[in-house]
Design a protein that fits this description.
This protein is an alpha+beta fold and about 70 residues long. It has one domain: Alpha-Beta Plaits (2-Layer Sandwich). Helices cover about 15% and strands about 30% of the residues. The chain contains two helices and six strands. The N and C termini lie close together (about 5 Å). About 25% of the residues are buried. It binds iron/sulfur cluster.
Length: about 70
Amino acid sequence: MKIVQEHKKCIGCGSCAAICSKYWEMADNGKAKLIGSELDSKGENYELDIGEVGCNQDAAEACPVQCIYVKP
Ligand code: SF4
């Protein structure tokens, strides 16, 4: 399973970090950072491979711009 953040769409609302602080934190650039993730080859999305979705599902559903994706 993979969690993906389309970083440029993030408006820095803080919802993901509030709901799912195990995986999300607010970065110095005002956007959310998916902890431990890496930038994809296009340099656009941050990706993290995990076994269980955990609170990332709640974070994805709470994101007002829908820039968090849970991929099987
Ligand atoms: S919930 Fe979405 S828009 Fe808000 S900080 Fe997290 S990724 Fe960014």
